[in-house]
Amino acid sequence: MFVNVSAHPGSKPKPLGQLGELSRARVIPSEFKYNRGTEIFGETEPADYIYQHLAGDIFGLENGAAHRFTAEAIVDTTVRLMKRCSLEHVAETDALVALDLLNMTTSNLRHAEDHMLLLGRKTSLERVAAFLREMDPRLTAAGVMALPMSRRDIADYLGLTLETVSRALSHLHGMGILGFLGQTQRQIVLLDRVRLAELDL
Amino acid sequence: MFVNVSAHPGSKPKPLGQLGELSRARVIPSEFKYNRGTEIFGETEPADYIYQHLAGDIFGLENGAAHRFTAEAIVDTTVRLMKRCSLEHVAETDALVALDLLNMTTSNLRHAEDHMLLLGRKTSLERVAAFLREMDPRLTAAGVMALPMSRRDIADYLGLTLETVSRALSHLHGMGILGFLGQTQRQIVLLDRVRLAELDL
DNA sequence: CGAAGTATTGAGACGTCTCAAAATTAGTGG
DNA sequence: CCACTAATTTTGAGACGTCTCAATACTTCG
Description:
The structure is a homodimer of 201-residue chains.
Chain A: E1 3-6, E2 30-34, E3 39-41, E4 49-53, E5 58-59, E6 70-73, E7 77-83, H1 84-93, H2 95-121, H3 124-134, E8 144-146, H4 151-158, H5 162-174, E9 178-180, E10 187-190, H6 193-199
Antiparallel strand pairs in A: 1-6, 2-7, 3-6, 4-5, 4-7, 8-10, 9-10
Helix pairs in contact in A: 1-2, 3-5, 4-5
Chain A binds a DNA duplex (30 and 30 nucleotides) through helix 5.
């Protein structure tokens, strides 16, 4: 999350993964900061590095030589990046590193499968509800959640238009499931987690 | 492909992968035949095995203990199945086996990412065109393609209804891109591959 | 405060879904 | 091989949901 991986401008962020102990690999993992809105890598660029969030999930790992999507930082974020060839070299000898990569990739696949279900069969309201539930870990103790993405980014992620996302949020507000801080809808207050959960069955 | 992996009845098949040399693993890979319509594994069942098509791609590999989808044989098919725990044991020591699993999983992820794009942004005509192009390897020398799945299965895969799939095929027929053998639309003749390709940009 | 970007809201167009009927195909037993 | 039935597919008409286009409101940042 917080990195937008898309075919063209703006699309689907990546899942959260478990903390991978890639540290076993003796590959110098450089930390790198990206500001909101900057491109981490571009479509068709050589896929020489793989990237890891602080949260632990990886992205940018390809079978082929080139990236197939563009990755853009949604918010200011720090990623670790490792040279792909060196990591592959380590993985060839250290099975635990390879297994670690496998687990993280399986986790990514799992998220993708869930997301396909969402894109194939859910209504706009259900999609937005599912999105908010995915954002749940970002909820502060006060019950306030600052949405990290613009309506457009959310819409791309959910396969909707930004207007439809906006309408869905307004609708959830009207249903008493959501509140807003101030008059804007950037800071969201979760009022009824139970009914929200019911929306994405 | 030819195995339907779904959350409930009927949904998305799996991608084609490269031939994985899992044979390195000294795990007895039993072959098993499934008839059209039979269930290979069920949702929430323990994920004790992983499965491999003759084509080479794997499915049923989970991080958790249970399967999250149902897999059903679309056509009569033979799969190799390996005990997960033994394979994991081998992968822990043999980095090349682990890398092989990683490559196949990355390939699955790649297909899933492409499919998300399709589900998120494409029209019914584009989806059906993309589906036919995915089926292209099944084309016989005579230019005839026997669709392996019912309209319902195609529809579930593409996030559409069976009626919409049927209409799209009729439409492609009307456009002169597709022909039919006999009066039915089970055996398809690809008349204009170029224009079909243009439809899924 | 003004300007640019972002979000909300409305109205109508468009595409897909739903429901229903008819046509075609597949399967079964005589 | 035929007749019959069940299953699948096609086609139609209308309902429904999302998109498109456009105007307004709000926020952010200079």
